[in-house]
Specification:
Blueprint: H1 11-26, E1 29-35, E2 49-57, E3 63-66, E4 77-80, H2 88-94, E5 102-107, H3 109-112, H4 115-126, H5 140-144, H6 153-160, E6 165-175, H7 189-208, H8 212-230, H9 238-260, H10 264-277, H11 282-294, H12 298-311, H13 316-350
Antiparallel strand pairs: 1-5, 2-3, 2-4, 2-6, 5-6
Length: 359
């Protein structure tokens, strides 16, 4: 739910906002203030960070997205102004708002054409996926005119039939440039590339401290950073391969965290993608072997452990230890299952036979 509050701008401030509302209307954006904000209207210089909740609806009231409900966490949206965000209309309407204000903006179709792509990315982020997953390697305009599914029926319909949208926005914070640490997604390509070694090191330090979930998040951010850059390169080109070599150690560290968290099938998936590309990556085979062993894939685990020994015979003691642990777990499981079946058969044997009677 969007909050309502008392208080509001001064008379002079109100006149300025009425003037701004008229300008918005001329641009095809109709603003309705639901709850006024407090304080002075910011000048919103480039580099300002705005934090807000949003709800996107069709004109008939059908809700497409609600940041308070996405991903189960209800995290607000963060935007750095002047970074050429794909959905330019959000920047346009937010600079008409005060901190704490809640307003509704009905935007003509010319402002909303890219919303399906933006929504797909935000939905991916909310469930921990790569924000670019499912998007083709082409510009936004080209994607609009393609028939490529976005993986969500409501977004596919909107992409095929663009229409006006209603954005209900609650502006939570306005942070001036230099007063906050820049998030990865808001960086330029150069800043992203320069930040990855630092992110990697932060993840390693968190892992050493036993803060596995925080380390996982760091590794994920580093991977997302590099994948974003890789999307702009042609697969197989020198630049693409260089980025892929940077992604690999981050992904292996990410998989180590996922092993400790018990997400074995995710580890198998990621390590399989690595072994497909790099047949001599012993760490990928080793982690996948451990994941297979954890989910009772004995044949696959043994094959991967054998590959590990082939690639690096010095790991023999470690592999032998893992194989013994797997065999103990398998024997224990078989013994437990035999015990359950034995009890079942004993119960059946003890039950008196039924006798058929005729009436």
């Amino acid at each position: 739910m969007f909050r309502h509050s008392s208080g509001g701008p001064s008379r002079s401030g109100s006149r300025m906002e009425e003037e701004e509302a008229r300008r918005l209307l001329e641009e095809g954006i109709r603003k309705k203030v639901i709850s006024p904000g407090k304080g002075q209207l910011s000048t919103f210089p480039d580099g300002t960070k705005v934090v807000f909740h949003y709800r996107t609806s069709l004109r008939d009231g059908t809700v497409l997205d609600d940041s308070r409900k996405m991903g189960g966490g209800g995290k607000p949206m963060e935007l750095i102004l002047g970074k050429k965000f794909k959905l330019a209309v959000w920047e346009r309407v937010i600079v008409s708002m005060r901190a704490g204000e809640v307003a509704q903006f009905t935007c003509d179709t010319k402002h909303t054409g890219l919303y399906p792509l933006v929504s797909q990315s935000l939905r991916n982020i909310s469930v921990g996926k790569d924000p670019l997953e499912g998007q083709r390697h082409c510009c936004g305009i080209a994607q609009i005119h393609s028939h490529h599914s976005l993986g969500h029926k409501d977004l596919d319909r909107l992409q095929a039939d663009p229409q006006p949208l209603v954005f209900a926005i609650e502006l939570l914070e306005v942070l001036p440039p230099g007063s906050f640490q820049l998030d990865v997604w808001a960086m330029t390509d150069e800043e992203k590339l320069a930040s990855v070694p630092h992110i990697h090191e932060e993840g390693n330090e968190l892992f050493k401290q036993g803060r596995v979930q925080e380390a996982t998040d760091k590794y994920y951010n580093g991977i997302a950073c590099l994948k974003n850059l890789q999307m702009k390169e042609h697969p197989g080109d020198e630049a693409w391969i260089k980025l892929d070599h940077m992604i690999t150690p981050l992904l292996l560290n990410y998989c180590q965290c996922k092993l400790l968290q018990g997400h074995y099938y995710e580890v198998i998936e990621h390590c399989s993608s690595l072994t497909f590309k790099y047949e001599d990556n012993v760490k990928a085979f080793y982690k996948r072997a451990k994941a297979h062993a954890a989910v009772w894939n004995e044949t696959e685990a043994r094959a991967d452990f054998a590959k590990v020994l082939e690639l690096d015979p010095s790991l023999g003691p470690s592999v032998a230890k893992e194989l013994r642990a797997m065999e103990v777990r398998i024997r224990t499981k078989e013994k437990e299952e035999k015990g359950r079946y034995k009890g079942l058969f004993d119960y059946n044997a003890a039950a008196p036979p039924t006798t058929a009677t005729t009436g």
